[in-house]
Hints:
- The structure is a single chain.
- The protein is an alpha+beta fold.
- The protein has five helices and ten strands.
- The protein has one domain (about 15-170): YbaK/aminoacyl-tRNA synthetase-associated domain (YbaK protein, Alpha-Beta Complex), CATH 3.90.960.10.
- It has helices at about 15-20, 40-50, 85-90, 100-110, 155-160, and strands spanning about 25-30, 55-60, 70-75, 80, 95-100, 125-130, 140, 145-150, 165, 170.
- The strands form three sheets. A five-stranded mixed beta sheet has the order 5-2-3-6-9, with helices on both faces. Strands 1-8-7 form a three-stranded antiparallel beta sheet.
- It is globular and about 40 Å long.
Amino acid sequence: MSTARRRHDVSGTPATLALDAGDVAYRTHAYDHDPAAPSYGTEAAGALGVDPARVFKTLLVDTGRGGADSLAVAIVPVTGSLDLKAAAAALGAKKVRMADPADAQRRTGYVLGGISPLGQRHRSPTLLDASAAAWATVFVSGGRRGLEIELDPADLARLTGAVTAPVAGPSRAAS
Length: 175
């Protein structure tokens, strides 16, 4: 990937602004989002013609700790689901559950289907599935539906402060 930043169809989302501030090489990929698509991540992979294992979704979990420390971010491939037990262990929590969607939107400043791990309103502990290291670049939401950011997974981990751990499980319909 070249270090040149391609800014087509991007109006400066918090995610791209965070990348620019971090002086990270990235590419944006816009596509026409279909509101009827059953999965944002697999829709993105298909629209961009990339291996779905390279496209990562951003999920929020609730550790049950209460307050601002209660929510954490997990970044996992769209080809699988989040292993809640593995996430809890990586976060040092007894257990975690998926965060309430309204809490996730408030915490991140993004809408569901467009939650980026980058440029969130409030920084949260973050986990990046270890499978990301297998790729030279991965894709994550650019901060709105129909916008993906391609970047080096090491840069993603650095900018989000992510701990890399095996937290992805097999695919499930509810992931």
